[in-house]
Specification:
Blueprint lengths: L1 E3 L2 E3 L11 H5 L2 E9 L2 E2 L2 H14 L8 H14 L5 E8 L16 E8 L4 H6 L1 E7 L14 H12 L4 E6 L2 E5 L3 E6 L2 E4 L10 H12 L3 E3 L5 H6 L2 E6 L3 E8 L2 E2 L7 H19 L2
The protein binds pyridoxal-5'-phosphate.
């Protein structure tokens, strides 16, 4: 079953209009939400970010956020989803093709679920990443449907046998193609500050909370590619990859080449949060 505006229907019965502005212009926003043991993880933060992304592109929600939240939870139930994701997108709707906003179109919400196991192998052993120039626009804070630069960066990583592309604007590391990036030096965790150049990751918010709870100092300041390559630990975070160690960047081994101690501590704290989440519904 999928969610189409307010209604639930079979996936094969849903029709995307060729003049939907999401399809033609990428004119819309989305969220990707993790479900653990049948319970949505960080649901409130995700729907609040969806609302904020919509606001930033002057897109009206098709109906109130409380109802969207309730319908997304129902979608999980109707599909009997235990472990996986919800993908939800809102576009500016259907109108004859013209760049400016249409006068009359109503925004369109589509959401569906994907069954998926947790990325245990990668979070346990760590991944390899490549470096690539960040060629995106200057509103990376908006979780918009325009993902072509991210797609190209991820494809480049794949071509090199890597799992993530760490992007940089000139010498400054911004974020991953679909993740936030951190480095650890002498028990201090560094990550790019929240501004228009990165996405305010929901996992990032939780990780920084857990870091502080565990007594680590957090410095939200940009760092350089050279600093990244010479640091003790690197990790990325995202809804899909959770907290994942990066043990090699391009040809450079990071630290000992094994997941680091601080990363491991944060992963343990994250497990605790997932367990607490699964306990409540
Ligand atoms: C560009 C980018 N940065 C960061 C993230 C991490 O965000 P979150 O933790 O909310 O999944 C994502 C997730 O898809 C992303 O696409």
């Amino acid at each position: 079953m999928i969610l189409f505006n307010r209604g639930f229907m079979e996936k094969d019965d849903a029709i995307v209009d060729i003049e939907d502005r999401g399809y033609q212009f990428g004119d819309g926003v989305y969220e990707f939400i993790r479900v653990y043991d049948g319970v949505c993880f960080e649901m409130e933060r995700h729907v609040q970010r969806l609302k904020l992304s919509a606001l930033k592109i002057e897109l009206a929600l098709p109906y109130p956020l409380e109802d969207i939240t309730r319908n997304l939870k129902q979608l999980v139930e109707k599909n009997g989803l235990l472990n996986g994701y919800i993908y939800a997108q809102i576009t500016r709707g259907v109108a004859p093709r013209a760049h400016h906003f249409p006068g009359s179109a109503s925004s369109v919400l589509v959401a569906y679920v994907q069954h998926a196991e947790r990325p245990v192998e990668k979070t346990t052993h760590g991944i390899h990443a490549i470096l690539t120039e960040d060629i995106r626009w200057k509103r990376c804070d908006i979780k918009s449907l325009n993902l072509l630069p991210n797609v190209l960066a991820k494809q480049l990583a794949k071509k090199h046998g890597c799992d993530e592309a760490i992007m940089h604007r000139g010498a400054t590391v911004s974020e991953g193609s679909s993740s936030n990036v951190y480095m650890v030096e002498k028990n201090v965790i560094y990550t790019h500050p929240i501004n228009n150049l990165i996405l305010n990751g929901i996992t990032r918010i939780g990780v920084l909370e857990m870091a502080r709870e565990n007594g680590f100092r957090v410095v939200e300041e940009a760092f350089t590619v050279n600093e990244l390559l010479e640091t003790e630990e690197v990790f990325i975070t995202s809804t899909a990859m959770e907290i994942c160690p990066v043990v090699q960047v391009d040809q450079t081994q990071i630290g000992s080449g094994q997941p680091g101690r601080v990363t491991r501590t944060l992963q343990q704290a994250f497990e605790h949060r997932i367990a607490l989440n699964s306990g409540g519904n």
